[in-house]
Amino acid sequence: MLCPQCKRQMNQSAVGEITINECPKCRSMWFDRGELGDVKNEIFPDMGWMDVETWMDRTKFQVQKSSYLCPRCADIELTTIHDKQSLAEMDTCVQCNGTWLAAGQFLYLINALLDDANKKSNLRVS
């Protein structure tokens, strides 16, 4: 599988029991369908109740076509989802439902989820 950004062969890396693809040059990561949530749960087991897919609320995020092609499907343009309030950004494939994160974006995504979890835990019932 080739990196969408630098076109180098991506290496497989293990996060617990999950195998993801990572570019040795630019450090971007590819997650097949469901793997992003699985990796989040592996690293942060207490955040299992937070679903990465619910993070894609179109009212809070800007959605646009990416300039990159899906490394799994090869001829499908990725769709970029950018959080309007944080720096979190991910590219997804509408065909295979995989997710590509440029270097550092996994951390931004996790921070956005942590912020969302913190806001939800601070809500008070009146």
Q: Measured on Cα atoms, how large is the radius of gyration?
A: 15 Å
Report the major sheet: 7 strands, antiparallel
Helical proportion? 10-25%
The amount of beta strand, in percent, is 25-35%
Number of helices: 2
Helix and strand element order = EEEHEEEEH
Instruction: Find the structural class using helix and strand composition.
Output: alpha+beta
Shape: globular
Number of strands: 7
The tally of domains stands at 1
Strand order, sheet with most strands: 1-2-3-7-6-5-4
| Arithmetic mean of pLDDT | 85
**Oligomer status:** single chain
The CA-CA distance between the termini, in Å, is: 52 Å
Short description:
This protein is α+β, with helices and mostly antiparallel strands and 126 residues long. It is 21% helix and 29% strand.
Feature tags:
single chain, 126 residues, alpha+beta, 7-stranded antiparallel sheet, 21% helix, 29% strand
Q: How would you describe the overall organization of this protein?
A:
It is a single chain. Strands 1-2-3-7-6-5-4 form a 7-stranded antiparallel beta sheet. The chain is 21% helix and 29% strand. The protein has one domain (29-121). It has 126 residues and is of the alpha+beta class. The chain has helices spanning 35-43, 105-121; strands spanning 11-15, 18-22, 29-31, 61-69, 77-83, 89-92, 99-101. The mean pLDDT is 85.
What is the secondary structure topology, with strand pairs?
Elements lengths: L10 E5 L2 E5 L6 E3 L3 H9 L17 E9 L7 E7 L5 E4 L6 E3 L3 H17 L5
